[in-house]
Amino acid sequence: MAGESRATRKENKENRAAAKKRKRRRGRVPGAWGTYRESYREAIALTGPVLPLVSFLGRLPLAMCQLGTLLLVAETSGSLATAGLVGGALAAGQTVGGPVLGRAADRRGQRPVVLCATLLNALSVAALVLAALARADTLPLALIAVVAGASVPQIGPMARTRTLALARREDADERLVGTVLSFEGTLDEVTFVLGPALVGLAVALAHPAAALLVAAGLLAVCGTWFALHPTASLLRPAARAASVERTRARGSVYALRTAMALQGAMFGACQAGITALTDDLGHPEQAGLVYAAMGVMSAVAGLSMAAVPARIGLHTRWRIATAALVVLSVPLVFVGSLWQLYVVVVVVGIALAPHMITIFGLTERVVPATRLAESMAFLMSGIVAGQALALAVSGRLAESSGPPAAFAVAVGAALLCAGLSWAVRTRPAPGRTAARGTTNRVTRDAEEPSGSGRSA
């Protein structure tokens, strides 16, 4: 009897497990992994699978041009100083031109703006290559680089804006909106890891000029494809925003842009510190691999953000992410060997993409829908500007005081980010409401004052 009872219990248990598995396959009990996978399936279904692929390939030239320009000008001019000046001009153009193109897209629609920017950028990058190969003077090279930077078509911010608008139009819940932000943030991270790797491959096989020409060709094809994709016509150009709309949420918007610039500063400081430390350790060739390892972990962390419960509001996520940035970046100052460096930068990568994705989410909530493309472009320009400035400053500190000084800049930027997350209020912009399925806790968390910062 006892044996039969045990056998019966075992059989019943197996039957229940099999029934649960069948239900999970039918979608009645999706399970954690099933829900996570379904979230990304729904996010991609908003635009179809072609647009994410095209936007991903269209973002690669942005990640390729900075390093490619530095290597090309350094080789053709024989001067690292000249290369730095031209690279700085490229970054300055990106910083200024991004928001201008974003505002134009909000007012004129994405299609004409992206088409014009794509054509101008491809031509200017090609002109930069020809001028560098012709050994042009520094000033002409810098002027061409400014145009090349200013005309970057901002495919990343445009894709994020387009997909978010479609999600809101479909009355998506916060889970799907969060998944869209996670997916787009991961695409950005992967491009900034893969882009320099492609440049290195092109340089090894041919010449730095080949890397920039590949970037120009890739942008010409994918930028045009992105502009002509049917989803571009679904976003109607907005009328000129009223002045009151432009002033709403100004304090919180500026704070979010500052936070993104500080994250860019972390990137630049880490890049300088990693380069200096690997050189001191006698393994300069490892610098790119170490930085790529940080980017890969950041991308993985970005994908995992879709699994964060919607009841954890955006402002709470911001505070958690900034606290993690501080705690995880402090060990960088004390790293003394190559294996320690790999371990620490991988751990730091856990907090990078979640912070960036959360900033994008908060910005989407607090700015008017008519200025979303401009605001997203401002965030990406902030990353570029912060990285370029921090790289210049921390590079000098690393030369004079050693790699820990450069890493200390990254820690300082993380501390400032944490201070902003506690000092700033974020409220939804007028006319913006929480998406369907958002709990009261989420709404309160996005709207409650946090600290004594300026009102949104």
The secondary-structure class comes to mainly alpha
Strand content: under 5%
CATH class of the largest domain: Mainly Alpha
Total beta-strand segments:
0
What low-confidence regions span 5 or more consecutive residues with pLDDT below 50? 22-30, 240-249, 434-456
Global shape: globular
CATH architecture of the largest domain: Up-down Bundle
CATH names the topology of the largest domain as Growth Hormone, Chain: A
Terminal CA distance? 72 Å
- Count of discrete structural domains: 2
Major sheet summary line:
none
- The named CATH superfamily of the largest domain: MFS general substrate transporter like domains
**Radius of gyration based on Cα positions:** 24 Å
SSE string, helix = H, strand = E?
Answer: HHHHHHHHHHHHHHHHH
What would you say this structure looks like, in words?
- This protein has helices at 2-26, 31-45, 50-77, 80-108, 110-133, 138-150, 155-169, 174-205, 208-228, 243-247, 250-280, 287-304, 314-329, 338-366, 372-401, 403-423, 440-447.
- The protein has 456 residues and is an all-alpha fold.
- The radius of gyration is 24 Å and the shape is globular.
- The protein folds into two domains: 48-180 and 192-237, MFS general substrate transporter like domains (Growth Hormone, Chain: A); 248-456, Up-down Bundle (Growth Hormone, Chain: A).
- The chain starts with a helix and ends in a 9-residue tail after the last helix.
- Helix 3 (50-77) packs parallel to helix 8 and helix 8 (174-205) runs antiparallel to helix 9.
